[in-house]
Amino acid sequence: MNFRGPFRVRADQKPYPKILHPNDAIVRVTRSCICGSDLHLYHGLVPDTRVGQTFGHEFIGVVEEVGSSVEKLKVGDNVMVPFNIACGKCAFCKQELYGNCHESNPMATAVGGIFGYSHTAGGYDGGQAEYVRVPYADVGPTVIPADMDPDDAVLLTDVVPTGYQAAEMAGIQKGDTVVIFGAGPIGIMAAKCCWLFGAGRVIVIDQLEYRLEFVKNYANAEVYNFNEIGDPVLFLKKATDWMGADACIDAVGCEAAGNAMQTITGRKTLLQAGSATALHWAINSVKKGGIVSIVGVYGPTDNLVPIGNVVNKGITIRANQASVKRLLPRLIEHVQAGRINPKAIITHRIPLEEVAEGYHMFSAKRDNIIKPVLIPPSART
Predict the structure, then answer these.
(1) Could you report the average pLDDT of every consecutive run of 10 residues in the chain (381 residues)?
(2) Residues 283 and 305: beta-carbon distance below 8 Å
(3) Phi, psi (5° rounding) for residue 30?
(4) Whole-number pLDDT of residue 227
């Protein structure tokens, strides 16, 4: 996959990746996904997304080569590769904040390295390819259990951990009402995971009926189309006895619809780092003393956010990139026990050579698409 500019990607021949450091591995990709946050790159909303980059931060594959210092992986291992690129040794990795590694991303002091996610996240090529170089190979890659479906495994590299951490950060207490803004793959998985933390009521807000129907069935959620309920904040206050939700999750990020001013300033003219509509709704819908959990992606610059309401309501805001490596052991257990069925959200399997059509379909929300997976040629033989 080769990025050629906003709304332009194509399948292309690129050089075979090389071992550049003794701790590197080369992985032959067997599954990769197109993520909703890849669409932010595709739509030109993330700074320093350079022509020629290969996207893709959700992938699994087979280890083809290892550097001379790699000890935990061997050629032939089937591995899932977390989207975080983490050194495992810095002060933040030692706190299991693998999404904030201090060594993997020289371009920023906030986020760590991320596969295939612009030079603001380190400039690493990603996994929407046949082969990918994986740095710090003894840290992130995890051998896939022999009995695990590869379609489940690929979703453990981002979607399941991010949805799970969204629910975890929401601080859910038994019986709580949780509102999730966004019924994309992350919002769907967050809704599913809220029940694992003891939620008593899970509400999902979106504007696409097919996605709302999907999350209703997959996660047993209460769903509402924001185009049909008037002011979502007022609606949610009424629905919670005028108290507000115990926790709100922003699973949308910078491309949220629903407010003309936010859309114009955040998506059309780029005067702020994306439309913060969902974040406004979350802050204004949560109860006093409640928690807002943010996993939707925003740019590294400023956003118009009602911080006064945060202060006056005593809201706790928790946000981060999911710490995949920290969460994998318990999530593998959840999948093996049947409590989470990740592969059920996959709706489209697309040959890697047709990546341009895959992006167009996902961006345009055609054919009731929820989650597309790209299959390289070697994985189809």
Answers:
(1) 91 94 98 93 88 95 97 97 97 96 89 92 95 97 97 98 98 98 97 98 97 98 97 97 97 87 84 86 97 89 87 97 96 97 97 96 96 94 68
(2) yes
(3) -115, -25
(4) 95
Supply the DSSP symbol for 107.
T
* b/e code 257-273 from CB counts within 10 Å (16+ = b): bbbeebbebbbeeeebb
Say what the pLDDT of residue 171 is: 97
Residue 321: exposed, middle, or buried by beta-carbon count in 10 A (0-12, 13-18, 19+)?
Answer: buried
Our count of domains for the chain comes to 2
Residues 111, 249: Cα–Cα separation, whole Å: 20
Give me 239's structure tokens.
């629905």
Same structural domain, 201 and 262: yes
Residue 205: strand pairing partners: 181, 224
Whether residues 117 and 52 fall in one domain: yes
Q: Beta 177-181 vs 245-250: how paired, if at all?
A: parallel
And the tokens for 131? Answer: 């082969």
| Strand locations in the chain (E) | 2-5, 8-10, 25-33, 59-66, 78-81, 84-85, 113-114, 131-134, 142-143, 177-181, 201-206, 222-225, 245-250, 286-294, 316-319, 348-351, 372-375
Joined together, the tokens standing for residue 288 give 């006093």
The tokens for 87 are: 């050194």
What pLDDT shows up at residue 332?
98
Structure confidence at residue 373 (pLDDT):
97
Domain end point (choices 319, 337, 366) = 319
Asked if 285 and 356 sit in the same domain, the reply is no
How far is it, in rounded angstroms, from Cα 80 to Cα 65? Answer: 15
Q: Is 168 exposed, middle or buried (0-12, 13-18, 19+ CB in 10 A)?
A: buried
Q: Give residue for tokens 């097919």.
A: 210
Q: Which spans in 170-306 are helix H?
A: 185-196, 209-219, 232-239, 260-263, 277-285
Q: Which residues contact 337 (CB under 8 A, 6 or more apart)?
A: none
Query: Encoding tokens for residue 198?
Result: 């003891």
Place of tokens 């206050």: 237
